[in-house]
Amino acid sequence: MPTSFLWGLANPTRFMALSARILPWMAALSAVVTAAGLYLALFSSPADYQQGETVRIMYIHVPAAWLALALYAIMSLSALGTLVWRHPLADVSQKAAAPIGAAFTLLCLVTGSLWGKPMWGTWWVWDARLTSVLVLFLIYLGILALWRAIEDPGQAARAVAILTLVGFVNIPIVKFSVDWWNTLHQPASVIRMDGATIDASMLWPLFTMAIGLTLLALTLHMSGMRSEILARRARSLTLKAADRAAERQRPLPLSAGSAGAGSA
Amino acid sequence: MMAALGALLVRDLKLAARVGGSGLLGVVFFLMLVTLIPFALGPDLNLLSRIGPAILWIAAVLATLIGLDRLFQGDEEDGSLDLMRMSHVPLELVVIVKGLAHWLTTGFPLALLSPLFGLLLAQEPDAMLAVMATLMVGTPALTFIGGIGAALTASLPRGGLILAVLVLPLMIPTLIFGVSAAQAAIGGTVPFLTPFLVLAALSLVAIVTGAVASAAALRGGG
């Protein structure tokens, strides 16, 4: 049962033990698949008959865009986990996903811009797809800022969860912007009802890269969760140590009046 | 319950009107922005009349942000927010009433006075009316979207800047449809009513989501 499995992980110690065993394998697998994908994309796939060699930017750009949306989806699911089920690892997962998602969104914007210059003749146009991805990046930055603004991790997690869910309205706008508005950016060509409109010689390198980068994102997400759990342990230990130190240094109460005067 | 909500509305309006309240400061700030932009662009009346609706809308967005950081913060500091949390009136309705009070002191006067500011930007009469109508219908969306940010940052010591970072991306759709409705009224291929109705819908959605999300944030942040 997936729910009972998720609740089994609610114990952070069990999660730490399990993830410590999985993580090296995931890291190695993502390195192998990404390396294979890069070889296929950069050397063994053909150049486009119109775009020439610049088409190879696609093998980074498209998976980055998918992951930018996928990590926001992970963040939103974790936000539901925080608000509805109060799952102890949900807010850790939320926090770990935010910087990775922001990084992939930036990667998508930068590679898109580098691709746009030779193909469209401009680094940037205010087209619906580009603008909505830029807004997605801004929402990611807002979420990162809110994480940094609130000190207590539990309180920060609930506040960020609400913001994440409100910001989710942008996700369908990003996905369907190319269908709703007549834009410069091309419509979807891989995931369509009537099959991909992209040739198999380019589709396979693209899928390999997508799988490799997804594994990379999941590896980073898991190791981010691990370091967040450790950081929280360190934080609570520091707070406890500070409490004990304060306890030791507190002078013996002489009388209620003098103690009150001293603290006032 | 209605009596309690009415009392809350009157209290918030009084607080805004009296010493220490932000009152009509939003409108003054709006005037400042409208004055500032022609200095930067140069007093080219043709250019100003073309981009006037956009200037007025950006100024409205920024002026709405001005008072927002105090929307819940004052009540959080003096403890009245705790009373509102514990009262039998649903917190969602409290949020709507507080948002209404904020809109009555910023968005509403701003929309009402926008023809006057339109004069400074060389607007035609029908463009002035269009901007006024779009601001009247669209500024509630700005207030209630901003209210979510205000609720999230209510207990933070310096919430103002982070509030702007949180809510400005969410205000973009309202800005797009507000400006496009105002532009459609001056001329163009799109009929005025299409973006105008979308703008009205955005406001209604913002009131509902804003009330629910802000109330959840106020409950969780305590």
UniProtKB/TrEMBL annotation, chain A:
Listed InterPro entries: Cyt_c_assembly, Cyt_c_biogenesis_CcmC, Cyt_c_biogenesis_CcsA/CcmC
Highest taxon in the source lineage: Bacteria
GO annotation (BP), single: cytochrome complex assembly
Entry membrane topology: Multi-pass membrane protein
Molecular function as annotated in GO: heme binding; heme transmembrane transporter activity
Pfam families: Cytochrom_C_asm
Keywords: Cell inner membrane, Cell membrane, Cytochrome c-type biogenesis, Membrane, Transmembrane, Transmembrane helix, Transport
Family (UniProt): Belongs to the CcmC/CycZ/HelC family.
Name of this chain's protein: Heme exporter protein C
Organism: Chelatococcus asaccharovorans
From TrEMBL, chain B:
Highest taxon in the source lineage: Bacteria
UniProt subcellular location: Cell inner membrane
Function: Required for the export of heme to the periplasm for the biogenesis of c-type cytochromes.
Lineage, opening ranks: Bacteria, Pseudomonadati, Pseudomonadota, Alphaproteobacteria, Hyphomicrobiales
Membrane-traversing stretches: 21-42, 54-72, 93-121, 127-154, 161-186, 192-218
NCBIfam families: ccmB
Signal peptide: none
Assigned keywords, A-Z: Cell inner membrane, Cell membrane, Cytochrome c-type biogenesis, Membrane, Transmembrane, Transmembrane helix, Transport
Family in the record: Belongs to the CcmB/CycW/HelB family.
Name listed for the protein in its UniProt record: Heme exporter protein B
